[in-house]
UniProtKB/TrEMBL annotation:
This is Monocyte to macrophage differentiation-associated. It comes from Amphiprion ocellaris. The keyword Transmembrane helix applies. It comes from the Eukaryota. Pfam families: HlyIII. Belongs to the ADIPOR family.
Amino acid sequence: MKRVNSFQRFMNRRASANCRYQPTCYEHAANCYTHALLIVPAFVGMTLLHRLSDNNWEKITAWVYGMGLCALFLVSTVFHIITWKKSHMRSVEHCFHMCDRVVIYFFIAASYTPWLNLRELGPLAAHMRWFVWLMAAAGTIYVFNYHEKYKLVELAFYLTMGFFPASVVTSMSNTEGLHELACGGLIYCLGVFFFKSDGVIPFAHAIWHVFVALAAAVHYYAIWKYLYKAPSADTLLDS
């Protein structure tokens, strides 16, 4: 019984329908650190892609993707810090909670941007470059109107936006990097299990953060290697 009680201190009861789970102090700390430690690496990664860019279009694409990556970890960290340390500031907390949800839509759009901008696409597929941002805008409108009311609907929106542009990316004639894209997508999907397990598994949200970090790292590696990395000397000689 003592073991059960000591274990339970790391997790509170599961939240009721359409209510937000209240983490323990240990979970709050884990939620903050698991994304706070990635802000600087994300900024460094954005800078690296910018330096590897050969033209203005690649630089703009690197900036858009990098800002989406940095914003994801930064906004998440700020929200969790406010929730942990400033719980009495309900209006500010609510605002950053919405921002935390909104930034996910823009992060998904930003993650697809390098592939849609820097790979050759067909005439119909090229419209996805703009449509993916329209989906992000639609998600933002949804959050500001129905925040925390229909959690399953919101999750369905995230998954739809995550998979729908993939139908275009996977149809590209150049398939380099698609294996990494698929692996990253699978990691995100596996992490969703923990995203919905607050109050069931201790540190579930922090574990979700780890899955997000791993998936983002796989996708970043693919973008760096196949879209930005300078060709090797052997490749230049072969060409």
